[in-house]
Amino acid sequence: MLNKLSGWDDTIVALSTAPGLSAIGVIRLSGPEAFNIVDAIFPSKDLTIQPSHSIHVGILQDADNALDEVVVSLFKGPKSYTGENVVEISCHGSPFVQQQVIMACLNHGARNAKAGEFTQRAFLNGKLDLAQAEAVADLIASNTKASQKTALHNVRGGFSEVLQQLRGQLIQFSALIELELDFSEEDVEFADRKKFYAIIDDAQRTTATLIDSFKLGNVIKNGISVAIIGKPNAGKSTLLNVLLNESRAIVSDIAGTTRDTIEEVMNINGILFRLIDTAGI
């Protein structure tokens, strides 16, 4: 699909790991010239003739300037994350080194990737559908066991599979209805009416389950807001401190000590709870 879209036939590069000082940084390239660009700065061997899903160790060198000793991973399209030729350079985590490597790739024909462009290309190449692409962002942002499990399930196509089954049911129903309408004047019944009702009932149950799962997924993703409400000096702030096991809220015998809401997040069995201490009412 990318070949049919103008402006999508180039090669992109970006830092795939979090920016900042670290032990290792991963720089990813994707596009038709990914292998040639990295091969131009990797004199240790000819990467263009190496097999897919292989790893190579060597020195990156831009002109006469040695950049870093790196590990280069090769993934030939379509068997890659984006469906294109993909190269991942694992270099040392110095921001200066990472920037030097990216600049070398830019100098040899790559361009800076836009935010989310690798996943966007994976979607456009049919490697991911929209639900899976959104789940990638959810997996990256997951901060509890429950949210991580839900996002990973969707990345693997769990939600998409249910949608595909629902789509198949609706297409089958539409086909049977059209068949009946086309031959409505004929004294022939092509489909059992009970089958129509069964398809509709099944589709309604599936839709209701999906709606309920969205509500649950939203709670897992964003957490459950719990407001601690009561009369002045009822012990609301004390309860918050006990739950958090720390002195987060000021506790006093004087009524009205808490005037503004105090919000804290607590992880209980993989579910986020947003505890809100309020003023007395």
- CATH-defined topology of the largest domain: Gyrase A, domain 2
Which structural class do the helices and strands define? alpha+beta
Please report which band the strand proportion falls in: under 5%, 5-15%, 15-25%, 25-35%, 35-45% or over 45%: 15-25%
Into which percent range does the helicity of residues fall? 40-55%
Structural shape: flat
Low-confidence stretches: none
- If helices are DSSP runs of H or I spanning 4 or more residues, what is the number of helices? 8
* CATH architectural name of the largest domain: 2-Layer Sandwich
How many strand units? 9
Q: Spatial order of the strands in the main sheet?
A: 3-4-5-2-1-6
Instruction: Please tell me the overall pLDDT.
Output: 84
Please summarize the sheet with the most strands.
6 strands, mixed
Query: Mind telling me the CATH class of the largest domain?
Result: Alpha Beta
* Euclidean distance between termini CA atoms: 60 Å
Question: Over all CA atoms, what is the radius of gyration?
Answer: 28 Å
- What is the CATH H-level superfamily of the largest domain? Probable tRNA modification gtpase trme, domain 1
Order of helices and strands: EEHEEEHEHHHHHEHEE
